[in-house]
Amino acid sequence: MTETSLPPLLLVGCGKMGGAMLAGWLERGLAEAVVVEPQPAAAAAFAGRVTVVPSPAAIPAGFRPAAVVLAIKPQEAAATLPAFAHLAGPDTVFLSIMAGRNVAGMRGLLGGAAAVIRAMPNTPAAVRQGFTVACPGPGVTSGQKALADTLLSSVGEVAWVEDETMIDPVTAVSGGGPAYVFLLAEVMEAAAIEQGLPPDLARRMARATVAGSGALLAASPENSAQLRKNVTSPKGTTERALAVLMQPEAWPVLMSKAIAAATDRSRELGG
Ligand SMILES: NC(=O)C1=CN([C@@H]2O[C@H](COP(=O)(O)OP(=O)(O)OC[C@H]3O[C@@H](n4cnc5c(N)ncnc54)[C@H](OP(=O)(O)O)[C@@H]3O)[C@@H](O)[C@H]2O)C=CC1
Ligand SMILES: O=C(O)[C@@H]1CCC=N1
Fold first, then answer.
1. What is the domain-level CATH number for residue 28?
2. Which runs of consecutive H residues, i.e. helices, occur in 36-176?
3. Is any atom of ligand 1 closer than 6 Å to the C-beta of 121?
4. Distance, CA 238 to ligand 2 centroid (Å)?
5. Does residue 228 sit in helix, strand or coil?
6. Is the pTM here over 0.90, yes or no?
7. Is residue 2 part of a domain?
8. Which of 19, 98, 190, 214 could, after both became Cys, cross-link 74 (CB 3.0–4.6 A)?
9. Residue 126, in any domain of the structure
């Protein structure tokens, strides 16, 4: 597919993640999309570029999406999905990004035979630097998988897995991961202020340091541990900081506990 040939899409839920992906798709050249979103403010940024309707009943007659992207909260799936069951068929794939909701449960709500792909993206999709892991459900054709791959890869990297249970830890690591990185920027900024730096400078430094380090990580052939070592001069300042961050019960253990907690929550949201 060329840079301008994304097929017609129906996006259900245009909140933070659905909106981030839509921004990426529009930047990529999405020509036709209908967005079902009951909150006018949520989709306001896309006015004039997509058709926004408040409910499935208002979808323009004759609109035939090649993909229906389910970007509502997991808790809303049971009440929402049955209204889209009539769209199931060989020419339409359902692409869910809902945390926890599994393929079997979604197919049940969509009439039993729908082609459903469960995917877990992340918000850097808005700048086409997302990372998505996706798993095809039963009956998904190679053409439907290729379409989902085109959509997802147009907003970042994509990895496919066959074992759906992997999506729960994926949700914890890459789905929620941007939040952990943004928290890092927040706490670095606060610590800089504590050390007497002006708030404006503290904010700029924290943002630029996190963003620049991410860019270096993306561009460098070295692994993250080596990039860390490259900053850590023997007997220098960073060594002192890392001795605090890497002590028992600090970052490595805390991250492990955090990822386990999020993975458990994804499993709880299942069904
Ligand atoms: N945020 C993230 O980084 C990521 C989120 N996800 C998944 O994406 C999904 C959406 O999350 P997020 O964008 O954060 O949540 P949001 O609450 O920001 O977005 C969901 C949107 O859907 C709207 N909505 C509610 N009911 C319906 C309906 N029946 N039809 C259409 N739209 C409806 C909501 O309106 P209202 O506010 O009125 O309920 C809201 O605007 C979740 O399932 C989440 O697990 C996946 C990966 C990352
Ligand atoms: O917090 C959540 O449940 C969603 C899934 C991953 C990121 N946000």
1. 3.40.50.720
2. 77-80, 103-109, 142-153, 167-170
3. yes
4. 32
5. helix
6. yes
7. no
8. 98
9. yes
